[in-house]
Amino acid sequence: MNKTNHSELRTPDSRLTLGFSPCPNDCFIFDAMLHGKIDTEGLEFKVFMEDVETLNQKAFRGELDVTKLSYHAYAHLVKEYQLLNAGSALGNNCGPLLVSSLPAGQAGSQFPVSSSTKIAIPGKYTTANFLLSLAFPEAKNKVEMVFSEIENAVLSGKVDAGLIIHENRFTYEQKGLKKIIDLGEYWEELAKAPIPLGGIVIKRNFPEELKKKFDRVLRKSVEYAFANPKSSLNFVKANAQEMSEEVMYKHIDLYVNNYSVDLGVEGKRAVKLLFDKAQELRVINKIEEEIFLI
Asked: pTM to 2 decimals?
């Protein structure tokens, strides 16, 4: 979805194509820099709002200058993009959930995940799918779909289980679905680190000054959002798709935190651990490039 009124012309040092999701956490983060609430230091943006797997695919095609990416997708794109310090979604107790429609007592540890279990996933290159593969390497029968369609696919019996992300973790119980496993908790127990879900990346071949400028502006946008939490409400609501205000703010509280202002030492350690595990399992190739913006 193209959300810009600017002309089609841009220059590499001013007007950037920018991709992020319509989810409350991303709208909360980007609102101030898109709506004149902070100094963008001359930068202008042509915005594309899509679900994260669509953004992943756009990045694989090199279509976006700056974009939100699943960390799993970014691991395949380190030659093309560099990770910014600001804007990431990391945290505790915020990971993807594997759910089923089995009656109470049959889900959880009793749910038989096997090679034949048909599981809906929100995209091949999502961090959620990587964690699923880590926890259940035998789970190969996967069906990709938009994250917002997964709950209904499970309820209708089209799939045996579904891997849910974003605000669906606040709604699945109301719909009668049962949790099989919280893959965020699984990762945190395994790695003793917060779970890296998504980050903001910029084209690696851009000048260092431009990359640092965007990172600065993004950080200011996140800081403004924290200082003025209601300021972004209209932008969040406009893209929240029939979500209650309570769920919107639960979503923001879950995915936007100090790591969104700056990854810091602990955030970078968590990202490195995720990539090390992916390389160990040969899910990704060895990474030679500097991942982080210095």
From this structure: 0.85
